[in-house]
Amino acid sequence: MNLAHEHRLAPGAIRVRFALGVLLCSLALFTLSANAQTPNPQQPLSDSMAIAEAHPTAPPTALRDLVDQAEKNNPELAASFHAWKARTYAPKQASALPETELTVQQFAVGSPRPFAGFSNSDFAYIGFGASQELPYPGKRSLRSQVAEREADTLHEQTDSVRRQVIENLKQVYFHLAYIQQTLGILQRNDQLLNQVQEVAENRYRVGQGNQQDVLKAQLQHTKILQEIAHHHQEEGQLEAQLKQILNRPQESADVVTENLVATPLNHSAADLLQKTRENNPDVRAHTAMVRGQETQVELAHKEFRPDFSVGYMYEHTGSQARDYYMATFSVRLPNRGRKSAALAEALENQERSKQELQSEVLRTLSEVQQQYVLVKQSEERLKIYEQGLVPQSNATFQAGLAGYQSNRQDFESLISSFLDVLNLDLEYRSELAEHESAIAKLERLTGVTLP
Buried (b) or exposed (e) across 385-402, using 16+ Cβ within 10 A? Predict the structure, then answer.
């Protein structure tokens, strides 16, 4: 059985010529239900009723609670956070002085053995010294800034991972909500079809119906059972994905979703685009990369400056000679050919990062605009379903019931109007899930909590 967006019943797919007695029983059932103000079997089920039938004991779980759990427990997000946290220690390392070198020297005279001739030669000595490299002023601070920009990039990437995890969670949650709601609808309508099938079989046994009607009823009943089984399979798969995102054991209790309600989009396209430029973590990460490359170019220019080294040595000789004291100062001249190549590389990387930033901005803004159009069009379609198609299909079905009672409408048309009610209800729920999924994408891209 084909369903809208892989789960809607195709219009006209369940067209069964049921016996007249079946319809009369159904008419009586509808009349009693209307008088008692209970849900009509042919009317669209509310979300709470549909979910309650599929999960009669489990309470629904709020999406906000699941988002909080994902932010605390998701291992992918935790790994990204620790990667950024580790990188925050890099600037201090980059700005630190090179390691100080301590030296111990022993100079022997007349023998390779340690300390040989130390007491009988004026040239023998034991020396203790230290030396320290000193980068050219400004190099250490620039290296620290480069490391800070890399840490800023990882921080924005961590925010991007967090938003992506939340979006994935919401996408699975909304899909699961659609499956659970439509599962309840299918189960309820399968019960009604079972009753119709039994009456059709009874009428066929007494010669008041025909075998074709019975076979069609059995076929449609089997198709609904197949679709229910498919819903159960997909529900199980979605539950597994949800538990993976939440870092829950797979054998833990399943999640029951809340009712889906359309989230209004009160922001204009221009407002969302501006929020994207300011808040999108991928754009901010590329911006930090550009700043880092600019600092890297500045450092490459500074690398043409020489570095220095200072040292001091104390040498203790034998008792017949005085001690020695030696201070050193050295200059390390850079290889200009190698430094020129490093500068050219830094300039190319700077231009690359600028182009990547521009590409990311254009891609993100385009995606925001597409999602904005999708949400606005989805709002229009939801309004058409709520104010037009769903009530019109219900009115058509009720009129068909009255017409059939007065023998002014055939049974085939009545069944067609019944399927319209069912299919439009499924389509409406599918549209609602798609609307909420598009809202979740906009929240990730813009950093705006909607509404």
Answer: beeebbeebbebbbebbe
Looking at the structure of the chain, the number of domains it has is 1
Taking 70 as the pLDDT cut, the residues of the chain under it are 1-57, 115-120, 192-193, 195-200, 202-203, 208-210, 212-214, 216-217, 319, 400-415
Burial of 264 (0-12, 13-18, 19+ CB in 10 A): exposed
Element (H, E) at 119: none
* Secondary structure in 3-state letters for 40-73: CCCCCCCHHHHHHHHCCCCCCCCHHHHHHHHHHH
**Residues 430 and 382: beta-carbon distance below 8 Å:** no
Q: What is the domain range of residue 136?
A: 13-446
Strand-pairing partners, residue 105, are: 127
Residue 258 in any domain: the answer is yes
Q: How far is CA 289 from CA 189, 286, 299, 353, in A?
A: 57, 5, 15, 7
pLDDT of residue 397: 73
Contact 135, 98 (CB under 8 A): yes
Q: Round to whole Å and give the CA distance between 175 and 1.
A: 19
Please check whether residue 162 lies inside any domain of the structure.
yes
Task: Provide φ and ψ at 331, rounded to 5°.
Answer: -120, 130
**CA separation for the pair 12, 19 (Å, rounded):** 18
Closest listed residue to residue 303, CA positions, set 269, 274, 260, 337: 337
> Is 6 within the bounds of a domain?
no
pLDDT at residue 394 in the model: 81
pLDDT tens across 107-165, in order? 877 777 776 666 667 777 889 999 999 999 999 999 999 999 999 999 999 999 999 99
- pLDDT at position 319 is 66
Sign of CA dihedral 169, 174, 180, 183: negative
CATH code of the domain covering residue 114:
1.20.1600.10
Is residue 326 a contact partner of residue 128, using CB atoms and an 8 Å limit?
Answer: no
Please check whether residue 389 lies inside any domain of the structure: yes
